[in-house]
Amino acid sequence: MTALTLSTAAAPGLRADAIVIGVAKGAQGPVVAPGAEAVDKAYDGKLAGVLETLGASGAEGELTKLPAPAGFKAPLVVAVGLGEEPGAEDAGYDDEALRKAAGGAARALTGSKKAAFALPVDGPGAIGAISEGILLGAYSFDAYKENGRPARSAAKAKNGNAPLAEAALLGGKPRDAVHKDAVARAVAVAEELNRSRDLINTPPNDLTPAAFAGIAQAAGKEHGIKVQVLDDKALVKGGYGGILGVGGGSAATPRLVKLSYTHPKAEKHLAFVGKGITYDSGGISLKPAGHNETMKCDMSGAAAVFAAVVAAARLGLRVNVTGWLALAENMPSGSAVRPGDVLRMYSGKTVEVLNTDAEGRLVLADALWAASQEKPDAIVDVATLTGAMVLALGSRTFGVMANDDAFRSAVQEAAEEVGEPAWPMPLPEHLCKSMESPVADMANMGERMGGGLVAGLFLREFVGEGITWAHLDIAGPAFNEGGPFGYTPKGGTGSAVRTLVRLAELTAAGDLG
Fold first, then answer.
1. DSSP structure class, residue 139
2. Is 433 tagged catalytic?
3. Is 275 a catalytic residue?
4. How far apart are CA 451 and CA 431, in angstroms?
5. Which of 152, 173, 180, 287 is catalytic?
6. What's the pTM value of the predicted model, to 2 decimals?
7. 401 sits in which H/E element
8. To 5 degrees, how large is the angle CA 190–CA 425–CA 448?
9. pLDDT digits 0-9 by tens, 24-46
10. In this predicted model, what pLDDT tens digit does every residue of 86-104 receive, in sequence order?
11. Helices (H) and strands (E) in the chain, counts
């Protein structure tokens, strides 16, 4: 990843390929943001006018390049839009605006060796946001391209495809412990989030349930996390009918992975549960053409949980965090579960399978019940669960459902705090009737309208009594099929990783429940 340094150097004398500055939308036109005073001075105080002449307005996502002034050791100035200029009553520039601006600049500087970021810095929060933005924006996944292995870095640099190699954060104090801690946190979270992106982008012929479990075991050894893997034989012995039913149609057998991070002084225990369908064909209820091509991303929930547990361990958070990865491949074959089959779940409940493409809730049900047996203080599950949630909230916002209104609000607030758009969704009791089955305790499908809510109600049935629970349906933001924006790349995004990490931090601090 991009190397980060804190620097108190002045922009004119810094050797770099580019100086990144912020520009905001002011009442009368673009306004040069704090941090770029030395650059503006070199333009005789007319930088805002120059940028306006070049078409810049300061709008979020806007990027303008111009030659650096005479006397600068860097040849290029990159002005990134920060959105509306803060008013006198505001606390300064929003962290998410800084994160997006830094990410867009880092991506635009692909192939560069070094850039200096002279964005507004008013404390450790801004430093952390800018650091995260740079590291997330510079992300690339090219392991499967020609010369796409680590040994080819020199060749990549030559053809201009290498990520930005180094970023200096001007205004950051290299000897200030608080500033250093902000960068260290950003590095830990961003590295693990980018690891989740790698997993999501990995082709399903390489990322089978067994391969994913192996990656988790390796990370556990590296970071002191206890990892337990239940293979197909152990799942049969344990009675995990949901995971076995979904994975039964594939030659790549399913796994249930448990990751346990413990802190000796922890007073709370969080459980994170992730849907890990490494490829989803829909099974016998086969998806139509045009809906299969990106289904390697159906393990994004498990990737988020995995990344969050490792990040919690790296940060040494004073909380116990258990991650459950429900891993299976949903394929049609002679041994695949059929519409009309009845599965006996790990909880003992029976479920009539009406649609084999509603498989995520089946693997999650087993993992939720397993997590419940440890009586954690709260459970949060994460899943690319329903197309209905995409229809409801679009491609950049995930839905939050819960069995406790206060906890649902807390989860949404944590998501918004770290820059992940989330929206509270209800669990209407009347929809439960639509999941009644004449042959089993319940069916895996209900009313089509409100399908995302029906899925949430189904999952609620497998949460232990008295346990606070939330469900994040990340079907929209988990995989970006459009062009990159801000610090979000095309492909796997790592949605919900930062929300889970923030929940763990709040719990460790005693500020969540």
1. -
2. no
3. no
4. 9
5. 287
6. 0.96
7. strand 398-402
8. 110
9. 999 999 999 999 999 999 999 99
10. 987 887 899 999 999 999 9
11. 15, 20
